[in-house]
Structure formats: structure tokens, C-alpha cells
Amino acid sequence: MSTTDLDPRTPVLVGVGQSSERIDQPGYLGLSAVELAAAAAREALSDTGTDVDAVAAAVDTVAGVRQFEISTPGAPAPLGRSDNYPRSVAGRIGAHPRRAVLEVGGGQSPQHLVNEFAATIAGGGAEVVLLFGSEAISTTRHLAGADERPDFAEHTDGRLEDRGYGLKGLVSRYAAEHGLVGAPEMYGLFENARRARLGLSREAYARSMGELFAPFTSVAAENPYAAAPVERDAAELVTPTDTNRPIAAPYPRYVVARDQVNQGAAVLLMSLGAARRLGVPQDKWVFLHGHADLRERNLLERADLSSAPASVMAARHALEVAGIDVDEVATFDFYSCFPIAVSNTAVDGLGLSADEPRGLTLTGGLPFFGGAGNNYSMHAIAETVQRARAKPGTFGFVGANGGMLSKYSVGVYSTTPAPWQADGSAALQAQIDSWPAPPQSHKAHGWATIETCTVKHDRTGRRTGIVVGRLEADGSRFLATTTEGDNDILALLADGEPVGRRVFAKWTPRGNRVTTSEARMAELHPVRVPGFRDDYENILVRRDGHVLEVTINRPEQRNSLTPPANDELDEVFDAFFSDADLWVAILTGAGDKAFSAGNDLLWSAGGKPMWVPDNGFAGLTSRRSLPKPVIAAVSGFAMGGGCEIALACHLVVADQSAQFALSEVKVGLIAVAGGLIRLPRAVPQKLANEMILTGRRLSADEALHHGLVNRVVPAGTALDGARALAADILAASPTSVRISLQVMEETQGISDTVDAVSHPTDAVDDLMLSEDMIEGLTAFAQKRPAQWKNR
Fold first, then answer.
1. CB 51 within 8 A of CB 279
2. Would you give the distance in Å from CA 552 to the centre of its chain?
3. Cα gap 372→36, rounded to integer Å
4. C-alpha–C-alpha distance, residues 36 and 85, integer Å
5. Quick check: 332 and 359 in contact, CB under 8 A?
6. Which sequence positions are flagged as catalytic?
7. What residue ranges of the chain have pLDDT lower than 70?
8. Four-CA torsion 108, 114, 120, 121, nearest 10 degrees
């Protein structure tokens, strides 16, 4: 087809550029991420073969790929960063675009941006689009501790279309509490599942990973932009040594994406009309013949953890849109953060071999060329464009992977003129989204089968096993880790053939655990027998007859709760509910500043391990049954989790200094310990909405007025007031009190009043057979005080 027959809005790639520097190279400048991207962008402008200033002035849209520093909330930037990365880069090359985009995170981003903005150009929404990305991770780590370190922070005015992190479905609290916080352990799960599917020994599979990646090192060794231009053979890549230390089974360091790089890359797209107007020579034009963007199901929703079929579908569909077969492709670049990212799509999906004569990479791959954050595939596109120009009419394939084998974008390139063609990714995505997902159990218990696993190694030599399992009882899938010191299960996971083996699972406050047998689990995690200790670190416990007084004893921290404090409270309330001689509990806080300020945010912000007992915050908020009365004695602040504790108690006595609030929204959290549910059931809906959405505080008198508390007493006397209320309860039959609570709990979810009244219960039978009922009636007839036995 002649270019004269094409729509002038047909998108075409007309310029590519790359930049890099290594800290050990002569002339090292210590460039920032913005400067590296600007250098690559200038190369891309120059690569057009026409007036650079005119092209820069014509750029109407810029889009940047996120650096790692801005890919997750709270990520550190020791040397500072731009607050508007796309416009910072644009300003350095003399461009003044009307639109600036910051793409979501993920290695698919560069190819996805090409696909998206090619479609935008074809639809008339833009004419000249500059895409770029960069990382200066090596420089940042090198200079962060320098006496005279550079300042990479900069402010740039101008509107920014920030698309966010794009982490939904990739990161979860459940995964994090089971050690899945980094890519190596996640990909290790997939890799080991694939090994089991293929029936290969550990040695044979390691050899196959080495054979896959050895040719990549040869390409990297010849690439002037490579971060690690060292050729290695297959055995060296997979043999653990001091420098090639284990990361997460089956990966030693050499086969893991290398993020310590200083690299930038840029791609310039135009409409054919703009290319002609700006004088871009036709021998610079490269067309996007095929493209696709698909997303895999989330981790635990995938039917088979040994493969990622969505990426294969994307690869095949892009070739289909291009109208060619895989045999007609001249060059390939497959995203290669880990071996399975290549083997899943190239080997298993497209039938290519590790020693494919055409090669599987143009750059040298992420472990050797460099894993330039989310921007690696921008370099692959740049190389592909150059190869396509060098051999006109040939086709180049770029496969870009993001997340955890999650997002896959593909482009097929050629100098052969071709009209823009829309792809069918949306229909394919609907098909993927309809695939059935296995059931899940977040709290696993019982015998199970290992579906896949990995062993994570830290720099101290500590090993942690991570397991995806299926419960025998219902086939549901769960995550679990090993218990520290459990060498039996570690030996199975690290050296044996674990997939398909039977293990025993148990939920603990720190997550699911697995081991080799039920007996071993009982040794590692014995069932706690309810009882009181002589002393506690975070609380005070006092028995006064039939009353138990529990004091949160962290006054300097406003009685905020850490995980160990929650564990102690959980233990104490287990003991209280199991002790037949204790009839009422009072919970209060030490000092006069606070009942409890809720979760200890300093503990959380310090990166310390977080967990909550099965019975919830303070051992109360998730407890399904509170069979005896619990009174909250509130003095001072009951904020956030402190308010949620009070809401979970049967009764609340507040002194005049008390203030109640669900303040979580003020610090970027929500009231997940029951506040979002209990408060709207305790006070008028509109008031609950206001408290939840604004963090509004209620005074003691307001709380009394709205029914949030039972009694208000003078300042400093909350505990005395709670004792008086407890005495009123003790005057009644403890059996009647206990059974009344039972009936209220049983009928709480029954909306119809008559149905609730008629609800069958054994509680009344227990009451009729109790000594306390007989004693109560007898004492009434004899006109004497009853002598209650709680039986």
C-alpha cells in the first residue's frame, strides 16, 4: 500500500532515543530521572531527521512512565523528585504540550502508551505525541549518603493528568501479611508451579532457566546502554554463589530484573499529516501493524498458577491484527523480569525455543540490560524501530509485561505502510473476566495440598516459606507461610518436591501457617488455655470480687494499642469469659488524657509487623459473643479504635472530659474495627454519617443525648461510675444477665419483631433449670436478698 492512500491521521513512529550512564563509567554526571528522560527525548527528536526545534514546538501531548519512586504510596525519594515529571521533561526540550499524562505503574506502560496514543492520533485527538520514561535508581543509591548530594526536587506548573498507581488487584493486605510484598517471591510461585506442571527436577528446571537467559547476556554485553554488560553461561547464571545469592526459589540474583540502573528512553509518534508537514523523511516512518492490551485475573482468582494465558492471548491477537504469523516476525523482545515472563509467552504460548535463531531480546533483557523500572519496554521499542528501519518491510514484536504476570501489552512494528486498525482487546478481556475463579479461604484450617510455593531468602540468611494451598475440605485456595524455626516444612519446600504434598494449615493472628502434620502444628502453635498471668506489659488487671477491672496502661501513648497490647487484651478477655466467678468486666485507660486513642500509628508508620487477634481490636471488636457484661469507663479521648472499643462494649460510662470520634479519615484510614457498622446502629444515621465522614467529635453530654453512652459522671470519676453500674448488675442474677445477653445476640439479626420473639432458643430451658432462678424466686418469697451462684 502506498502512503498516499492512507488517511493523514494514520499514526506513525518517527523518532526514538535512549540515554544511560553508569557510576563506574568515565564522564559520569549523576543525572536525575528528568535529565535522563530529557536526554532520550532529545535523541528521539533528532532521530526524526528534520528540524528538532520545529518538532518540539509541534508536540501537543506528552506522557511519562512512572519511576519506581512514584509507583507506590510513600515510596522514598532520597534525592527529591519532580512534582510534574512529564512537564519537567517537556520543559527541558522546549515543548509546551496542551496535555501531559502520567501513566499508571507497570512494565506494560510503554507499549500500552504507544497503543493508546496511536489510537488517539488516528481518532484526531492528537497530532504529535512524545512518550518517555527513565530511572536514576543507581545514582540515587550511590549519592543518597554523600556529603554534597544533589537535589533532584523540582516544581513544574501546568495541568497533569495523573492516572494513579494502578495497583488495584496487584497488592492486597492478605498477600502482604503472607510475605508477598515483592516481585521475586510472587514470580517464584508461578515458576515453581510451572516446574511441577512440566514434571522437571529442580536441577533440570534451573538448567532450563540458565539456557533461556544465557543468550540474553550475550546481547547485553554488546549493548552500549546496558547496565550489566557481562556475558555469562547458563551454569553461571543459576549456580548460587556469594555474589549470585538466592533471592526467592528458584531464583538466584543473576536471573532477577536489575533495578540499579540509570536509563531513559523516548518514542515520538505523529500523524502522517504532521510527519509530512514537519518534513520527517519517509525512511524514518514505522507503522504499528498490530497491538493488544490484556489483563490477567488477580493472583488467587487464576485457575492455573503455572501459566498466564492472557499474555499469550494478547501476543496472538496482536499478530492476528497485523495479519502475520509468528514465523514472519524478524525480531522479538519479550519482557524478561524473570524467566517465566519469557517462557510463558514465548516458549509455552508461541512455541519458540530458548535458542531461537532470531533471538528473544533486542536489548539484553531486564536482568542484564537493566530493569529500568516500568520503562524497560520503551528501550525495546526503540531497538525494534531501529531494526525495522535497517531491514525495511520486516516485522518486529514487542511484548511488555506488568504487575505479577498481570498486564500485557503487545506491539507489532514494520516500515511497511499500513492503515490504522482497531484491536479486539475489549472482547477478549470480557472473556478473561468471565473465567471461573477458585473459592478462597482467608482463614485456613485443616489438611491441605500444596498448589505451589517458594522460599524467600533475606540478607541475613533467614528463610521463609510461602505456600499457595488448597484445603481438602472444600477445595478453597489460601495463602500461608512457614513458622520460624520449622525446619521440617522448610526442608520440604526448599529441597523436596512440595507441589501436591499434603500439609496441615492453621490460621493465626499473624496469618495462615502450614507445617507437615497436625501434631507438629500443635507443637508450634498450641491452643491457649484461658487464664490470667501474674503480669502484663501493656495492661493492668485487677479482680474485685465478681468484677474484673482491665486498664490499658500506655498513658504516654494515650493508651493507643500495638499488636502485642491487642494480644494481651484478647488473652485477658478469653480468661474473663471462661471464669465462672467473674460476672462483669470494666475496661478503662490509664491516666486522665485518654481511654484509648486507637491504633498506635507510630508503630504502624515505623514499618513494624501488624496483626490483630481473631477476636479483633482489644480482643473485643470481632468477638462473636460477649456472654458477660463489659463496661467501658471512658475518661478523655476515645478516638478511632478507642471509640470502636467503646462501641463494642455493652455499656459505657463517660466522665465529663470524654470525647468520642471515629477520627480515621483524618489520617487516611477508615474505621474497620466495627465503627463503620456499629456507629450507624447506635446513633441517628445522619449523625453517624457526619462522624464517620468528617471525624466530628462528640462530647460526653452529646454522646449521652444520642444514646452512645449510658451515664455521664464528673471528670475523673469514670471508673467509679463504672463500678457503680457494675454493682447494679451484680445485684441481679448473673444467670439471668448472661442468658438475656444470649437471647439478644441470637435475635439481633432478625428484623421482624414477632419472629424475633418467637425465635426458638435453648436459653430459656437453661434458665428454667438454673439454681439462680430458684434462688431468685425463693428469696423474693422470703423477702430476703438473693445469694447468686451463677449456675
1. yes
2. 32
3. 11
4. 12
5. yes
6. 644, 664
7. 1, 763, 765, 767, 772, 775-776
8. 180
